């Protein structure tokens, strides 16, 4: 929704609330006499008329939108030989959902597609991570993948892709994960050295065992004097 539409809705709502309260207090409540007396004040009366006019115009606009406006279900992405190639909003949302959930680390909990009949597609995705992750790095990666993936479906009509990360399903400390990975790497690097030392120890033990079991020759000849 654009800023102008949002401003118009806020003004319409405030004008309607003021008009309803100003007219209702003259009939109900303990301030009926005060509200009736304010009607003769020029500034108050002019403000009430302006608010009533804004409310009437806003109600007419809403009525015409409800009667004649059609919600755009398809988006024209290209023209070929006088014909038009269109894509539905559901197809765009499904493509965005598949891209977010491709690597299995995140889930697209909600996908909103805002598109005009002849292009100008805007996609907003609410991302639910499965565990704690670096939002800056993952967000940039997903944004690039969504822009390239949606361009394959919508062509050059993709204007904006917005990502909203919500709290993850499970918490995992990134520093602890990095420490565990470093410990595993050190263990894997030290494994060959440990195996080599074990082999050297086994060879030395075998040599010592061979030396201890070697034969000892003792002269058996005894002297006659003995």
Summarize the structure.
This protein is of the alpha+beta class.
Average pLDDT for all residues: 77
Quaternary organisation of the protein chains:
single chain
In total, how many beta strands? Answer: 5
- Fraction of residues in helix: 55-70%
Task: Specify the overall morphology.
Answer: elongated
Distance between the termini: 122 Å
Low-pLDDT residue intervals, each spanning 5 or more residues: 209-226
Major sheet attributes? 3 strands, mixed
Number of helices, counting only DSSP H or I runs of 4 residues or more: 6
Walkthrough of the structure:
This protein is of the alpha+beta class and 226 residues long. Helix content is 56%, strand content 19%. The chain contains 6 helices and 5 strands; from the N terminus they run αααββαββαβα. The chain has helices at residues 3-24, 32-38, 42-68, 89-100, 135-154, 174-212, and strands spanning 74-80, 83-88, 106-116, 119-129, 158-165. A 3-stranded mixed β-sheet has the order 3-4-5, with helices on one face. Strand 3 (106-116) and strand 4 form a beta hairpin. It is elongated. Residues 209-226 have low confidence and may be disordered.
Features:
226 residues; single chain; elongated; two-stranded antiparallel sheet; 5 strands; three-stranded mixed beta sheet; disordered C terminus; alpha+beta
Task: Summarize the SSE layout with pairings.
Layout (H helix, E strand, L loop, with lengths): L2 H22 L7 H7 L3 H27 L5 E7 L2 E6 H12 L5 E11 L2 E11 L5 H20 L3 E8 L8 H39 L14
Parallel strand pairs: 4-5
Antiparallel strand pairs: 1-2, 3-4
